[in-house]
Amino acid sequence: MELTKIAFGGGCHWCTEAVFQSLIGVAKVEQGWVASTAKNNTFSEAVIVYFNKNQIDLKTLIEIHLSTHKSTSNHSLRNKYRSAIYYIDDHQQEKSKEIIEELQLNFEAKIITQILEFKDFKPSTEEFQNYYQQNPQKPFCEKYINPKLTFLVEKFANQVDKSKISHLNSTI
Predict the structure, then answer these.
(1) Reading across the β-sheet that carries 84-87, which strands appear in turn?
(2) pLDDT for 7-37, tens place per residue?
(3) 10-residue stretch averages of pLDDT, the chain, 172 residues long
(4) HSE on the CB side for 51, CA within 13 Å?
(5) Is residue 41 helix, strand or coil?
(6) Which of 5, 12, 111, 133 is catalytic?
């Protein structure tokens, strides 16, 4: 199985990691910090998503990403939590632009998510890798991640691997 990779930054990388880990067709998620180029060359919380494009397409991944973080809010912590799609190649760059333009119709406010070149990655320390899967009962997970996963089940049910979130019995 050939996997395609792309990176996403938005909110906390624990949240972003958990969202993408729960999807059918996503084989691996690396959590950490991504840097781009020029004015975005500083590291910002993000994940690298490795996916099987025969099981889940780029449009679905981007739609889920835009829907599960504040993709229309330009808040004061955007240097740490850059709302971005980090493309690996020119095709992803062009396709991501087209997808955001198309999905903008579904949002009342303007999407501020940037499409940036993927330049560098620093993984999180081992203790924070796979954070949600190891700590689903921690208060942070219950307060911030569970609502995102519940939303996924409600809006993107066909893309969610329910076995990965079976502890959310009341919503699945």
Answers:
(1) 114-117, 84-87, 4-9, 44-51, 26-35, 120-123
(2) 999 988 999 999 999 999 999 999 999 999 9
(3) 93 93 97 95 96 97 96 77 95 98 96 97 94 93 94 95 79 50
(4) 24
(5) coil
(6) 12
The pair of three-digit structure tokens given for residue 137, joined into one six-digit string: 């009962």
Question: What is the pTM for the complete model shown?
Answer: 0.93
Domain 4-165 has CATH 3.30.1060.10: yes
Q: Nearest 5 degrees, angle CA 168-CA 26-CA 32?
A: 85
As a whole number of Å, the end-to-end CA separation of the chain is 29
- Classify residue 20 by its DSSP letter: H
Question: pLDDT tens digit string along 119-132?
Answer: 999 999 999 999 99
Of 106, 105, 25, nearest to 58 by C-alpha is: 25
Task: Give the span between the Cα atoms of 65 and 42, in whole angstroms.
Answer: 21
In the chain, % helix, strand, coil (3-state, to 5) comes to 40, 20, 35
Hey, what's the torsion of the CAs at 110, 116, 120, 121, to 10 degrees? Answer: 30
* 141 catalytic per annotation: no
